[in-house]
C-alpha cells in the first residue's frame, strides 16, 4: 500500500501550479527542479493519475546534453476527488477472482 503524505500533496500542487501558470507552454525541467522536489517524477505520475495529460519533450544537443520540457495539455474532464487510501479490492477485481473450489463439480 502506498501512503500519500501532506508533503506529497503540497509538492504535487506546486508542480501543477507551475504547469498551469505556463498556460499550455512548455516548462523546462530546470524550472521544475528549482522547486526542490527530489521525486518530481513520482509527483508528475500522481498528477497524471488525477486525469491531467502532461506531455514530455526531450532534446539531445549536438554535444550530448539532454534537455527536457513538460507541458500540460489538458485537465481532467470532471473534477476529481483527492485520492483515497487504498482498501482491499472487491472480489471481482482480484487477479484470479474467486478461486474457492467449485462446489457444483461432482467426480
**Order of neighbouring strands in the sheet with most strands:** 1-3-2
Mean pLDDT value: 81
Residues in helices, as a percent range: 25-40%
Uncertain segments:
none
Series of secondary-structure elements, N-terminal to C-terminal: HEHHEE
Q: Which term fits the overall shape? A: elongated
| CATH C-level label of the domain at 6-75 | Mainly Alpha
How can the largest sheet be summarized?
3 strands, antiparallel
- First-residue to last-residue Cα separation: 41 Å
Count of β-strands: 3
- CATH homologous superfamily placement of the domain at 6-75: Winged helix-like DNA-binding domain superfamily/Winged helix DNA-binding domain
The computed structural class is alpha+beta
Instruction: Tell me the β content.
Output: 15-25%
The count of helical stretches stands at 3
What is the fold-level CATH name, i.e. the topology of the domain at 6-75?
Answer: Arc Repressor Mutant, subunit A
Mind telling me the C-alpha Rg?
20 Å
| Secondary-structure arrangement, i.e. CATH architecture of the domain at 6-75 | Orthogonal Bundle
Amino acid at each position: 500500500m502506498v501512503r500519500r503524505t501532506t508533503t506529497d500533496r503540497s509538492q504535487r500542487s506546486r508542480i501543477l501550479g507551475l504547469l498551469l501558470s505556463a498556460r499550455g507552454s512548455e516548462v523546462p525541467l530546470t524550472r521544475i527542479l528549482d522547486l526542490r522536489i527530489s521525486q518530481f517524477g513520482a509527483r508528475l505520475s500522481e498528477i497524471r493519475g488525477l486525469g491531467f495529460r502532461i506531455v514530455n519533450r526531450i532534446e539531445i544537443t549536438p554535444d550530448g546534453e539532454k534537455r527536457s520540457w513538460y507541458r500540460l495539455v489538458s485537465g481532467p474532464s470532471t473534477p476529481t476527488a483527492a485520492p483515497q487510501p487504498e482498501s482491499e479490492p472487491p472480489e471481482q477485481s482480484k487477479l484470479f477472482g474467486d478461486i474457492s473450489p467449485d462446489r457444483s463439480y461432482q467426480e
